[in-house]
Amino acid sequence: MIVLASASPRRKALLGDLVKEFSVLPADIDETPYRLEQPEEYVLRMARQKAEATIRMNGLAVRDVVIASDTSVVLGETILGKPAGRNEAHAMLRSLSGAVHRVMTSLCVCDGGLNRVVTRNVVTEVEFREISDLEIEQYWATGEPADKAGAYAIQGVGGVFVRHISGSFSAVVGLPIYELSQLLSEFGVSALKENVRE
């Protein structure tokens, strides 16, 4: 059994492009960064802890393959999580306006017994154009920024702010397809075989 340790509809859709059948068993963990924790350390820790929590809560078998991921928008060394409300979303988008930031998306793929655990961190640079306060207000009114890291969705209306990206588009959406397919192959799962029409 393949298990996605995430409730994200975006990750579910992206994984569905790679494998036909999988279970969604999200983990509820404390996502507060540690004091002085570096962004890369944080996203890798989050992915691993999500995988571990899902295994612990569901009593998974060694033969099961668990996929967990975490995405953080990073400006300088500051992690921009999901905004708590309108004001925080406004502040995040104002800080991203006209600037280059990094999107870090970590992966943790492991067996259900945690005998084999492999992690990766995929970093993509994203450049925003200048955004006006009116545009920020209009964007907030779409409802899209409310549950997104950094208060935007590159695959949605928020894409209008993106001047350039260098790296993985799917990672910014929430699941780096190339890296995940490589890791899954190490666990005996081939995306190409999974998608052969019968």
Automatic annotation (TrEMBL):
Site description Important for substrate specificity, residues in chain: R10, T71, Q155
Reaction catalysed by this enzyme: dTTP + H2O = dTMP + diphosphate + H(+); UTP + H2O = UMP + diphosphate + H(+)
GO cellular component: cytoplasm
UniProt cross-references to CDD domains, sorted A to Z: Maf
UniProt-listed GO biological process terms: nucleotide metabolic process
EC number: 3.6.1.9
Family note: Belongs to the Maf family. YhdE subfamily.
Protein name listed in UniProt: dTTP/UTP pyrophosphatase
Organism: Marinomonas piezotolerans
